[in-house]
Amino acid sequence: MWARSVLGIVSLALVFNDALAFKEQDFKTCSQSGFCRRGRALSQRAQEAKSAWQSPYSVDPSTISVATDKAVVQAGVKSSLYPEVNFGLEVRIQEDGAVRVRMDEVGGLRKRYDEAASWALISEPIISKNIKWVAGKKDLRASYGPNEVVVSYAPLQVTLYKNGKEQVVINGKGLLHMEHFRKKPEPAAAVEATPAAEGQEQTVIEAPENPRAWFEGADEDALWEETFNSWTDSKPKGPESLSVDITFPNHPVVYGIPQHATRLALPSTAGENPTFTDPYRLYNADVFEYLASSPVSLYGSIPLMHAHSEESTVAVFDLVASETWIDVSHSTDRSTETHWISESGILDVFILPGPTPDDVFAQYAKLTGTPPMPALFGLGYHQCRWNYVSSEDVRTVQKRFDEENIPMDVLWLDIEYSVDHEYFMWNEKMFPDPVEMINDVAATGRKMVVIVDPHLKRDNNYPAFTAAQELGILVKPKSGEGEYEGWCWPGSSSWVDFFNPNAWDWWKSLFKPYQLEGGKWSWTKSTEDVHIWNDMNEPSVFNGPEITMPKDNVHYDGWEHRDVHNINGMLYSNATWQALAVRSDPPKRPFVLTRSFFAGSQRFGAMWTGDNLGTWEHMEVGVKMVLSNSIAGLSFAGSDVGGFFGNPEPEMLVRWYQVGAFAPFFRAHAHIDTKRREPYLLPSPYKEMAIDTLRLRYTLLPVWYTAFRETSVSGKPILRPQYTVFPKDRRGWEMDDQYYIGGSGLLVKPVTKKDVREAEVYLGEDEVYYEYFTGETYRGAAKGRTVTVPAALDQIPLLVRGGSVVPTRERPRRASGLMKYDPFTLKVALSKDEGARGELYLDDGETFGHQRGEYVWREFTAVKSKKGLRVSSRDLGSARPAEAVEGASPGLTSYDRGNKYARTLEERDVRVEKVVVVGVKAKPKSVKLDSQGGKELEWEWTPGVGSKEKKGGRAGVLVIKDPGVKVTQDWDIVIL
Amino acid sequence: MVPWLLLALPLGATAAAGRDKLLGVHPSALAKYTPSKSNTWKCLDGSKEISWNAVNDDYCDCPDGSDEPGTSACPDSRFWCKNEGHIGAYIHSSRVGDGLCETECCDGSDERPGTCPNRCKEIGEAYRAKRDAELKIQKTGSKIRSTYIAFAHKERKRLEDLAASLEKDIVAKEKEVEKLREIAERTESLTQAALDHKRQSPLYQSLLNHNKALKSLKREYKKHADREKQLGQILDSLRTGYNPNYQDMAVLEADGEESSTPEPESEKTEEAVDDGLWTADELDSELDDLIGTDYTSLLLEHEDHINTPTEDSLLFKITSYIPDAWLPQYEAWKDNFVDWLEKLGIVSEESSGSSTEATRAQQALTEANTELNHMRREKTESESDVLKIFNPEHFGAEGEWKKLDDTCINHEVGDYTYELCFFKEAKQKPNKGGSNFSLGRFQSWNKDARPGSPEYYSKQVYQHGTRCWNGPERSVVVLLTCGVENTIYSVQELEKCEYQFKGTSPALCLPPGKEPQNHEEL
């Protein structure tokens, strides 16, 4: 016995040393997954049959029921394969023109999972009362504006037209197939097992020809059981998969369906010469050392896909929570075909008609919500490591940051803070004084984020586990009895089932930093300055199939894990978010970081791209992954600075800080095996470069915060890839290495390659751009132009689009909260028409006061006229109160300029200390504050190129010193 | 609306006008902050001339930031807090007006009036109390340190004396060796032929064969033992150093099996001993002796044994008649006497077999040589130890660390006790049993500091400890400060297998007044 295990260890040791890579064998390919195999085979048969192929599904016209008061139509659907099975179709048109197509089996043996929408959507979408369905002989039609939706009866097909042109076609390729519930056939073993008498010719009993073979294939494939590696999925419900093809006949490029480590414009997986041979997979998984280019599923799933062309942007949102595979191909260079294969659940597809990217963002936000205004500190710099090992360590790290005067908002604790990986429970040997430690960190305006994972160690002395056990809210094994046991960090663990409503109140109570009445356990050894990191919520199960839970595990109400897998992680961060919001009175904005996510997760905090590697290619793909999340609604995203695994060389770390500083979520993190790499440990001159980058992030916090206001209201992403800003510019469609930050006019192209000292930046318009630091001018062209920008190691290619006003705070401090009364600097970058516009949004960054009207929202403009250049500040809160903030209290219809927050800024004399006008060709004659009887201001002009000119070179810059105006106030500066 | 707007108009300028122009200026620089006759002022780097009004107006005019000593306007300037009643200090401009009342600026002069109360009195008192306490420790510590230094001097004396006496002994020994060599050479030539004949004996041949077999068995035994040890270590390090991020259940299981196995080896081996057979330990130690047997000598002794009469001579029996107190002198006298008798050929004439005589001579020579080498080595060591004692790169310029050479101190954290033996090795010992890990052997003092400086002795580096499972060799950095005891008070594994010990030692307590001054006092 002993000898055997030793041999085992030795051979393991050999395996380990060269196993530092993605473990391909741990995860399924399509061919290893029964329903994906069936789905792809269906597609293959359709292709081979060519025009002879026809979908067996059709609408029974006699069953059509058109609602009279709203745009809803219901109809029965039949499949010619199974005439005895009934399906119900419902097509709704929402107020904003989005189309919802739902189909379910009616009166079947069981019920398909239909609750994904209740978790992903913010509310039941409002159906249009004006748009009318008209039932014809061959189809149902509804027209509105340029759009028309057509539901053809035979075969069943749903098409969205715009101006008579096909935008989105469902089941146009006839791949729709909803496997109905059926009884497991009795084993016919007795007959077949009879051995034919020896020597006799075996009588071949002709099986009756399967009339459905043309569609479903001749053989049953993995309908009732499936084995992968050592795990067998018992599939008690049998086959219930769902295949649907969605075609974009006039859209050549598609984006979205995060999370995959690949380009933003999705490479093909089918058709001729596909980039990837496997479909994109959505099945939340803890993938160890994932590949930097792959369609393999990662930690989260958002089944939203944009399809884009010069004429329009449309999207489909396939609201399904089970494992889903998506093939993408282009049969022509102007079309895209997609095939979605899901393991279970109803068909619930939203067609978002666009027609612009911004419209699509708004339509999607209306369904799944927007990111709320984050706590301001969440936009600062986060310092993490697996692990800061003691409270002494934490204090030392903070001290080192202060000694070097490096801004930092949050210190993080990974799993080793807890004793035996029992989250909430401090390892008191290393953290003897947790509350004092947190208070020490908070004393400089900082916060802590502490990890709490969803697996609970099965330890009868662990209050979280015993309480969950008592409440009966743990996920059950396939038997449906008892508790599922799996392995994770603490060893044998169980998982809280957040589909169980009883789990929620209990979870909320745990985070109360004070003793609860009745003596129930709560986290008294924490404070309101502790926020939460939810990791491993795919869920990650070390000894489970594909490092996750068996699909036949049982959740609340009897649903199988297979039905809910992809939304499981979102429920966890949702519950934590709510727990933090209600732990204090009045409530404060929570910060929750999640690794797993689904459509709607944007409402519950930030995400990051998981356990990346410290390599240049991971740095590069991290940018693309964050962009992909941004366009799918989850803007508050970032990847680990430095890479989780490995020891990045100083140059790489400097570049990675530059990447991180231009991502919404900015955190450095490192694996336990790596060397320490806090920025102060870098050798000179790298250290100074990293610190300068961190300070730049802090000076730009007003830009980030203002961008968050916009996304919180409109759903427009924080990071905006080229196609979303210039949808008609073909040259920008494939670009995913440069992007704009909100509506600020900042265009950044982080360097993600070694030894690169120059960057090619693409300007998709005829406009002047200015290098952020030097004012060097770069001019675009109507057809687009690529310009070369210097990118020495201490330089981030960062341009300001002519026509923007960028508000900054040039006094970076130790933490963002310490800057709240600092004055602003306005960078007015003149356009070629000598105008500019920008916004600034401010609130307390902490409470929900903004929803009660406690905020300041300003607009800055520069307008050229015969009377000179007028730079003005106006109040946007009063002008557009209804669209100022997300979640505004009902009844808040006007804006009070004297609100509590604005008054604080008044009292603290928060000024605009400097106005920098870039692109001023001639030395001004005078610069006056218009509102104070023409008071002449102090200013300085540096000669250079004007914004209107064609030539390059440094821009002429006018610096106006302290105009003596408050940020809350309306003012005008006239430059003659 | 209108009144509100009017309210908004009084501006920052008014607030700035009231600001003290000299706020935040260090007393020594006050003279530099005076306006010119035309009411202008030059940035301290001379790069720009600005209006005197622009000094401390909360707007950064000078590229060097010198115009804003009292505000946060310039990103990299410093603010001088007077801290009357305590110690004046600079704070970074990023801390000016940040709303925090930092201890470094206890007078609150960096914040808006009314934000921070002047806490310099209490902070100053607390500081002084703390400093007094530290001073007391330092004083006590430095007294202990002076005993360390005295010890070093004694050690030097002792080692020098030792070296001197060894020198004498070496000279005597050298003479003796010379004499013995002559005797040995003389006897050897006579006996070679006789010896060759005796070696033909079947007994001798058989002994050689046995020896060969023993050697082979021992080689195999050692091979297996090494392997077993190695595997044991792998399992041990798996248990302690297993990297859970590999998420490999096989490792966990294998580890589980191993640790759940009761440790059978020690018990079993003890049971197995009977019939006078050797235990594993005895096997280890005795086998080597056995293999190393000089069979030629054995052969000769064997002959002697056969040929000698069974009675011992009177000389050897006399001890029984001598009082115990005289015994040592007698024994010494006897040894010398017999020795000389042999060397002079008086006794040897009586013993049969000249080969025995040759072997004995040879043995005597070898022994003497060994002793001589030993003495020489000892002498070299003492000499080099003397040099190390006062070498700044070893035991310090005053030899203050010599006392701690090989002193061991412990600290318990969680499931482990950490042991530090100064200048030797650091170890991790599991409290619940299991094998110890070396965390490294002493390598150097703080290489980033000048040898001899206090910083140099504030850090010791121990390296090349047991290699971690799938990781680096363990190592330790020991950070030391002055304290009245030699202790470790904190052990942290800041990076995988890289430990940081924090401790105190009186050896670092310089007499008060001798240490470099860090603080400026008002």
From TrEMBL, chain A:
UniProt keyword annotations, A-Z: Endoplasmic reticulum, Glycoprotein, Glycosidase, Hydrolase, Signal
Metabolic or biological pathway:
Glycan metabolism; N-glycan metabolism
Query: What compartments host this protein?
Result: Endoplasmic reticulum
Annotated Glycoside hydrolase family 31 N-terminal domain residues: 89-327
Give me any GO biological process, just one.
Answer: N-glycan processing
Supply the name of the protein. Answer: Glucosidase II subunit alpha
What is a single molecular function from GO for this protein?
A: alpha-glucosidase activity
Chief subcellular site?
A: endoplasmic reticulum
**SUPFAM superfamilies tied to this protein:** (Trans)glycosidases, Galactose mutarotase-like, Glycosyl hydrolase domain
Q: Which InterPro entries match?
A: DUF5110, Gal_mutarotase_sf_dom, GH, Glyco_hydro_31_C, Glyco_hydro_31_N_dom, Glyco_hydro_31_TIM, Glyco_hydro_b
Which positions fall inside the DUF5110 domain?
825-872
Automatic annotation (TrEMBL), chain B:
- Annotated signal sequence is 1-16
Alphabetical keyword list: Coiled coil, Disulfide bond, Endoplasmic reticulum, Signal
Parts forming coiled coils: 149-227, 358-385
Checking InterPro entries in the record gives: Gtb1-like (IPR039794), Man6P_isomerase_rcpt-bd_dom_sf (IPR009011), MRH_dom (IPR044865), PRKCSH (IPR036607), PRKCSH_N (IPR028146)
What are the start and end residues of every segment in region (Disordered)?
254-273
Show the GO cellular component annotation of the record. glucosidase II complex
Q: Where is the MRH domain?
A: 406-511
A GO BP entry: N-glycan processing
Q: Which PANTHER family match?
A: GLUCOSIDASE 2 SUBUNIT BETA, N-LINKED OLIGOSACCHARIDE PROCESSING
Q: What's the protein called, per UniProt?
A: Glucosidase 2 subunit beta
Organism, scientific name: Ephemerocybe angulata
Its taxonomic path starts at: Eukaryota, Fungi, Dikarya, Basidiomycota, Agaricomycotina
